[in-house]
Design brief:
Length: 375
Amino acid sequence: MLYRLSELFPFSPWTVFRYVTFRCAGAAVTALLLSMWLGPSVIRWLREIKFRQDYRPKDVRDGAPESVVAAADAAKRGTPTMGGILIVLVLDLSVLLWARWNALVLLTVLSMIVLAGLGFYDDWLKVTKQNSQGAASRVKFYVQIGLGLAIAVYLSQLPSTQSLVSDIHLPFMKHPLWVNVPIVGALLTVLTIVGSSNAVNLTDGMDGLATGCTLIASLVFLVMTYIAGNARLANYLLLPIVPGAGELTVVCAALLGSCLGFLWFNCHPAEVFMGDTGSLALGGALGIMAVLIHQPLILPVAGGVFVAEALSVMLQVGWFKYTRIRHGQGRRIFLMSPLHHHFRKKGWPESKIVTRFYIAGFLCAIVALSSLKVR
C-alpha cells in the first residue's frame, strides 16, 4: 500500500518506499508494535470466550510424577490458546501495508490463512472437547497435501515460475541437481510444505519454543529472499534468481516482527499459547517461502530444531511398532516424544530446554547461511 506513494508522488521523500530494505524495517517494526498493542486485547477476548486450555498438557500425562503433574497443571491450565490469530492478523496487516503485492506474496499470505483456518478448527475441537485430540490426523494431512499440490500446479503453469518446480537445487552446490523433473519437484514442494507445517506444530509444546525457533529460521529466509530477488547478489553467490522474491523479504520481516511481539506474551510463563492456529501457519509460511525462492532443501538445515523434533516422533513411533511386532512389547527410544518432552522427563527445567533449543537453532541458522558462500 505504501509503495503506491512512491508511484503517485515520484519525488522525495516518498521515493524511500521504493526500497525493499526500508519497507522490511517498516514491516518488522509495524508487526512488533501491532502485536504489543493488540496482544492484551486478544488475550482478554480469548479468556472471555473461554478459548483456553483446561485439559492436562501432553508432557505431563501418562506416568509423570504427581508433583510434576500438579505443578504443570497449575502453570498451564486456564491459559488462553489460539493466540496464532494474533500472529496471522498482525503479519497480514503489516504485509498489506508495506509489501508490493505480487503472485509470490499473495501465495504466501493465502496459504498462511488456509493453514491458520485448519489450525483454528483443530484448536476449536480441542477446546470444546477439552482434550488434546483435536481434528483427525488424516483431515489435516488431506488439507495440507491439497494445498501443496495446488501451489505446485499453479507454479508449474506459469512460465516465470515453472523452474521453481521443475528444477531441484541442493544447498552448497553451484548447479541444479536435476533439471526438468516436474513430478519430483511437485512431490518435493508438497513434502516441504506439509513437513514444515507439521514440524513446527510438533515443536509447539513449551512456552516460547516454537515462536523463538521460527523467529530464528525467519532470519535465514530474510537474507535468502533478499538475495533471490537481487540479480547482482544472486549471480555473485550463484543462487537462482527469482523475479519478485524481494517482496518476500518484507513478508519475512513481518513474520519476524510478529513472532517477536507474540514472544512477549508467550515466553515462560506464557500468557497465551499460539495453538495449531499459529504453528501450522508459521510452519507452512517457512515451507512455502523455501519453495518460492528455489531453496526447499535449505529449510531442513535452517530449521534443524524442527527436523529433530519431527524425527524424534517418527523414530519413536516406528521403533515402538517394530519392537511390538518383533518382541511382543513396544519399546521406546526416548522417554517421550517430541524431543523437548524427553528432556522434560529427564528433569530439565522448561526455561533451560527452550534456551538450549534456541542455541541449537542459531547454530543451524549459521550453517544454512554459510551455504551462500560454500558453493
